[in-house]
Amino acid sequence: MTKDINKSEFTEGTKLKLAIFRECFKEWYPVFLNNPYVSRLIIYDMFAGSGRDTAGNVGSPIILLQEAMGSEKQYCAQIRQNNKSVILAFNEKEESKRNELECNIKREIIQCKKACPFNDCVFDNACHYAHEDFSDLIQKESLLRTLNNAKYAKFVLLDQYGFKQINDEVFLKLINAPKTDFIFFIASSFIKRFSTLSAVTKYFRQENVSFEESNPKECHRVITNYFRSLIPANKEYYLHSFTIQKGSNYYGLIFGTNHTLGMEKFLRVCWRHDTLAGESNCNINNDFQLGELFYQLEGSNKKQDVSKELKQKILSKEITNNKEGLKYALKCGCEPKVYVDVINGLIKDKKVSIDGQFNKTAMNIHSAKLYNISVI
After folding, report:
1. Which of 113, 161, 237, 303 could serve as a FRET partner for 50 with CA atoms 20 to 30 Å apart?
2. CB within 8 Å of 170: residues ≥ 6 apart
3. DSSP states along 262-329
4. CA atoms in the 13 A half-sphere facing the CB of 82
5. 339 and 322 in contact (C-beta within 8 Å)?
């Protein structure tokens, strides 16, 4: 039987996962709320649970509702001003938990309305509930039409139990949906532990998943690379993961977006939680840390490795302009500033020159002014 995390207090690992969910959505939401080309925002929580644990800590659906309102309820006013439609769609397979969730959501809205200056609440009819098996839900024509509607912005949260629900087919549907960002949880240690059993090989082709027994903390990276291998070669798409260690097991999150801004924002969240590598709670690259003999203030193993790769690719003319360099940093899981530091050093050392208007853009790189790089 699947463990019900709502029937006990959330573990520290679960609280970290929920914190990343919150911060990720908090970064995503205002971008599309203020986008004039988006008429509707749809927020999906496909494995919603009941909304709270036994200690009263809020789960993902209430987190999404709270952030959709805003910490000062500022987004309620923006929804009215921008004439936006915001929908929160919650699915929980167990009907009893789905009913409990609806009660918890309604209580949250009632509490909010007590301090609201408006007579009507924009979220009164914004929340929708279902109790379906995800494998059936993801096949529904109505859902697929919504996912593929380019006028709608979609945030898809998939906090599955285990690993079985997000298979190759589901992943490809998500990455091909326009204006759709997703984040899902996966029990990578379970896949590693039972990698030869049919229960696992049914979902993951064994020839594309190879674990190193001596380095268990790498298992979530292996699973992320498996999904990365499914992205068509001609498709520009960004994927990043965050490993969460719980005792001897490793779980993780995988975030996907087809826009550089989406990846910038997710990486910002990850690097806040992991200043060494931006991808784990367990010092995944074995960096020396503050107080240790060989600790280096100037950078981590991850940043040094990516900087070295960038420098090599620039000097070998594989990267020929700033856009390519900035995107390469993103795809390596680093914030774009890593590229800016590298190109500044190469200019200072007189190893490259710039053709065009030089700029040090390291944020909102989709709008950066293009310049070309010439190797001296």
Report:
1. 113
2. 138
3. HHHHHHHHHHHH-TTTSSBSS-TT----TTSTT--TT--HHHHHHHHHHHHHHHTTS--BHHHHHHHH
4. 21
5. yes
pLDDT in tens, 72-107: 888 988 898 888 899 999 999 999 999 999 999 999
Taking only the tens place, the pLDDT of each residue in 349-369 is 999 999 999 999 999 999 999
- Measure CA 39 to chain center: 23
pTM score over 0.85: yes
Work out the number of other CB atoms within 10 angstroms of the CB of residue 15.
13
Judge residue 174's burial from the number of C-beta atoms within 10 Å of its C-beta, 0-12 exposed, 13-18 middle, 19 or more buried: buried
Q: Same domain, yes or no, for 113 and 177? A: yes
Q: Are 152 and 43 in contact (CB under 8 A)?
A: no
Question: Which CATH number is 181's domain given?
Answer: 3.40.50.150
- Judging by DSSP bridges, how do beta strands 249-257 and 180-186 pair with one another? antiparallel
- SS3 string of 167-227? CHHHHHHHHCCCCEEEEEEECHHHHHHCCCCHHHHCCCCHHHCCCCCCCHHHHHHHHHHHH
Lookup result for tokens 């268990």: 216
pLDDT in tens, 115-137: 777 778 899 999 999 999 999 99
Q: What are the phi and psi torsion angles at 229 (to 5°)? A: -70, -15
Range of the domain at 126: 5-273
What confidence score (pLDDT) does residue 333 get? 97
Does 287 fall in a domain? no
Which residues are within 8 A (CB) of 151 and not within 5 positions of it... i.e. 6 or more apart?
Answer: 37, 38, 39, 40
Domain count of the chain?
A: 2
**Helix (H), strand (E) counts: the chain:** 14, 9
* Cβ-contact 105, 90 below 8 angstroms: yes
